[in-house]
Design goal:
By secondary structure, the protein is an alpha/beta fold. The protein has helices at 16-28, 46-54, 69-74, 83-88, 114-138, and strands at residues 4-10, 32-38, 77-80, 98-101. The longest helix is centred in the C-terminal third of the chain and has 25 residues, at 114-138. The two termini are 17 Å apart.
Length: 140
């Protein structure tokens, strides 16, 4: 059976879309082909790598990519993880693509001590993991 392609989109493809990419690959990689991208490529956020490692998922080899229109139009699901990407997502010309918006706070904007910032990253990570787990369980 052909895997359904899930394309996670964010503004910079550095945090939220990378976390979602990592979890879906870890939890549903046998069912889904997973890709992620951003309106821009800001590079992989080191804190995202760190908090995913704590959760047992290695995303250190992921790359930060700009949205590819070809992938966008062959995806089964296009899922935006921030309002900016949702509002500025390129036009999807394929009517069969299912587009959803799952909004999560941007942990890269967190301020405070390093521990307070990491706490914000972990909160967002755990919320994304819960959303991915229900997506895999329900198939939507």
């Amino acid at each position: 059976m052909e895997k359904k392609l899930v394309y996670f989109l964010c503004t910079g493809n550095s945090c939220r879309s990378q976390i979602a990419d990592g979890f879906l690959n870890a939890i549903g990689g046998d069912t889904y082909e997973v890709k992620s991208a951003g309106l821009e490529a800001h590079g992989l956020n080191p804190r995202a790598v760190q908090i995913m490692k704590e959760a047992g998922v290695d995303i250190s080899n992921n790359t930060s990519n700009v949205i590819d229109p070809e992938i966008l139009n062959r995806a089964t699901y296009v899922i935006t993880l921030c309002g900016h990407a949702d509002e500025h997502c390129p036009v999807i010309s394929n009517p069969d693509v299912i587009k959803w918006h799952w909004g999560f706070e941007d942990p890269a904007k967190a301020t405070g001590t390093e521990e307070e910032i990491l706490t914000q990253f972990r909160t967002v990570r755990d919320a994304i993991r819960q959303r991915i787990e229900s997506f895999v369980k329900e198939g939507k």
